[in-house]
Specification:
Growth Hormone, Chain: A, about 425 residues, Sugar phosphate permease, membrane, mainly alpha, MFS
Length: about 425
């Protein structure tokens, strides 16, 4: 480290100079890759000893889980017309989905600690397949709401277990592994909403959900075959629901690192939920995009996460949360403020590129949050916090829908930018090490 507190890069510079002397001067992109640690050896270290197939299976399951959930915003206009919903009610459907997902985090974390992370991943995927089948055959708004809630709860079980299993399997590269997994989710977010929108336009929205059911079943089998049933110890802090266990959990939750990162996570999750929930509708109603154009741009937004998330995950591994997170949140703030003032197709496209930074904050905050808990309660602790911040964040689409219905669609994005500013102000309060 230098006196200014930044990493000492002199060794990197000398290595580059030596290579130039030999006629092998690297390109600018290669130099950046060296700084971030993205070289062949790093990739081999991440994937060695069978970890690659575990990462693939977990990432594939997450790709499907979140991709189908993010198909909902694209299908919202079709659901509105098919079920006779206004914007407020349509936004509430998204709130139901994400609230159920939030409420399932704590049970998912407890089950992860007690039954084993791999077992919970399989259980989550199987439940999701069944509930998605119910969504596909639902013929009324109440049944769609009910089945959506059950589907959200089922996918929630996947949420915590994927973090704890990756943290255990990749102890020295958890940010990178989580970043890759979340990037796989962005593949699902880019492809599955686009496919669902195409199916809805040519057939009916129900077919998009129905065709995903056998895919969920196949992924459940893959997870069962490849992922270890348990990566944590044979016992956990919540093997018995006692007063002593509760005191232990509460004592950990009161640590400064956990309190501050949770507040930041609440703010940033509200940004993610509010933005993604109604962005296709915003493009159609406020920017004059067609439904096909809005769907395509929404898919492109998530496709950009394939690049953004591994990069921000590696930034966290290299520089820590206090140096990497302010940069990401700064880009988010400027992009959200600029969005209402962008007019025309290409300015909005460029704005969406910068808005994809919203997808990168989680690969910084979530590894930090996971590392903050001791091994015997990672699932329970992370599940409790995820239930807490997701329950609050689940209200964001409904509140955004109310603003939109009352003529304040543009102003809603300024509010989200304000959340990012508050989060930036809190970052200096975070300890350098999550368990320091």
């Amino acid at each position: 480290m230098t006196a200014s507190g930044f990493p000492d890069t002199s060794g990197i510079g000398n290595t580059v100079a030596e290579r130039c002397d030999l006629g092998g001067c690297p390109t600018k992109a290669q130099t950046v890759a060296q700084v971030l640690g993205f070289d062949g050896q790093h990739v081999r270290d991440v994937l060695a000893d069978g970890r690659g197939q575990i990462l693939f299976a977990v990432a594939l399951g997450w790709c499907l889980s979140i991709g189908v959930r993010l198909a909902y915003p694209v299908l919202l206009p079709y659901l509105q017309s098919g079920l006779g919903l206004d914007l407020t009610t349509a936004g509430f459907l998204l709130t139901v989905l994400w609230l159920a997902y939030a409420l399932g985090q704590l049970p998912g974390g407890i089950l992860s600690d007690r039954l084993g992370e791999g077992n919970v991943l399989v259980l989550s995927t199987a439940i999701s397949a069944v509930m998605l089948g119910v969504v596909a055959v639902a013929g009324s708004a109440p049944l769609v709401f009910f089945a959506t809630a059950c589907f959200g709860f089922g996918t929630a079980l996947y949420g915590v277990a994927r973090f704890t299993i990756l943290s255990a399997v990749f102890p020295n590269n958890d940010g990178t592994a989580i970043g890759i997994t979340m990037a796989a989710g962005e593949v699902g977010n880019a492809v599955l909403p686009l496919v669902a929108g195409g199916i809805a336009a040519t057939l009916a929205w129900q077919y998009g959900f129905g065709l995903a059911v056998p895919v969920f079943a196949l992924v459940a089998v893959l997870l069962w075959l490849v992922v270890p049933a348990r990566t944590s110890g044979a016992t956990s802090a919540v093997d018995s629901l006692s007063l002593e266990a509760a005191r232990y959990v509460v004592a950990e939750l009161r640590r400064p690192a956990i309190i501050v990162v949770t507040v930041i996570q609440i703010l940033t999750y509200c940004i993610w939920q509010g933005f993604t929930g109604l962005y296709p509708t915003y493009l159609i109603e406020m920017k004059g995009f067609s439904e096909a154009m809005a769907t395509g741009l929404f898919s492109a937004f998530f496709a950009l996460g394939i690049v953004v998330q591994p990069l921000t995950g590696r930034l966290y591994d290299s520089f820590g949360i206090r140096r990497s997170l302010p940069v990401v949140l700064g880009v988010i703030t400027v992009s959200l403020v600029a969005l209402p003032f962008l007019e025309g197709f290409w300015p909005v496209v460029v704005g969406t590129v910068f808005l994809s930074s919203i997808l990168g904050y989680g690969t910084i905050t979530l590894p930090y949050m996971t590392a903050a808990f001791p091994a015997d309660m990672k699932g329970t602790g992370l599940g409790l916090l995820r239930t807490f911040y997701m329950t609050i964040g689940a209200a964001s689409p409904a509140l955004f829908g109310i603003l939109a219905d009352n003529g304040y669609f543009d102003e809603g994005y300024i509010v989200l930018a304000g959340f990012a500013v508050v989060a930036i102000a809190l970052i200096p309060l975070l300890p350098n090490e999550a368990r320091g």
